[in-house]
Amino acid sequence: MPYYDKVQAIIATEANAPTTSTTICIPEPGPHDVVVKIQACGVCHTDLAYCEGNISDNFPFLLGHEAAGVVEATGSAVEHVQEGDFVVLNWRAVCGECRACKKGEPKYCFNTHNASQPMTLEDGTELEAALGIGAFAEKTLVHEKQCTRVDASADPAAVGLLGCGIMAGLGAAVNTGEIKRGESIAVIGVGGVGMAAIAGAALAGASTIIAIDISDEKLERARKEFGATHTINSKGLSRDALVEKVQELTGGVGVDVAVDAVGRPETYEQAFYIRDLAGRVVMVGVPSPDMKLELPLLDIFGRGGALKSSWYGDCLPERDFPMYTDLFQQGRFPLDSFVDERIGLGDVDAAFDTMKQGKVLRSVVEMEQA
To answer: Which EC number(s) does UniProt give (predicted)?
Structure first.
């Protein structure tokens, strides 16, 4: 089968095994496909989930999805971007035709676009690209609407993070939680996603921003770098003790918005009870399939408000990526503060180990540019 190019990439071949650096084949782009030369790609927990077999068992996977790069080639019918454009890749390429889009809710698009054909190994084995992107590679093939143009002078390692985790946390506070100027918010779990929720709340003008975690180091970063006004180390605290501490910081009533950036039954329960009456709970942490939640139905009824989940921060890439890139360029949103280390393509497994130890918000793979 003819191909456009052969490049180096990182793939997962089986569950809980080290990744493999190998040569992959990029097909000739179909009419609406685009070849993007990757400049940087963040190492996300979702990539680790692929490696551990927690997404599906459709190995081998081409890993990587928090990416920025330059459009190198386009298919015959591409109109959305052109060669030379600097783009951030996204996994919600709104289709415009599904029932969500037709209802005016494209943030819930059920039929997002992907490349028309898979990338492969040299022997023809088809690869499943992580979140339809696959950017731990020198180049990747995506649908044109998976590309969002942003300011070409921006740091690829920073703005590429909008492609997943940072946008998820930021959007959980701003889009899903609808945090408003002067309101209060608490964020449980201040890894990359939770820290982004804190930064988003600060940008939106929240007056009380409470970071909750079991790591003093992360809590200090939340306060110094991302805008938290208060911190609580919840290690060893009962749910009721945590509720009391949050109420002490909010005039005895609880927060307007509570974000669960962990995604466990116990953290969701904490988020449910630390909010004010009619407050909003937002779940952006991703639970595992076996987790169950039990809450008194009368409490759900009696406390009112809203219980929401947040996919991709309920973002619209074409609206949000350029805006937050511009805010970053203006020094108003600290995207670069999430980049704790810059690594090479061969360092992904080491980055997964660092991630498991909770030592970084993001490791970012930077590609060698010819």
So the answer is: 1.1.1.306
Let me know: does 297 contact 321? Beta carbons within 8 Å.
no
Percent of the chain residues past pLDDT 70, beyond the cut: 99
| CATH fit for domain 3-163+334-366, picks 2.60.120.430, 1.10.3720.10, 3.40.50.410, 3.90.180.10 | 3.90.180.10
Kindly report the number of other CB atoms within 10 A of residue 152's CB atom: 12
pLDDT tens profile 232-255? 999 999 999 999 999 999 999 999
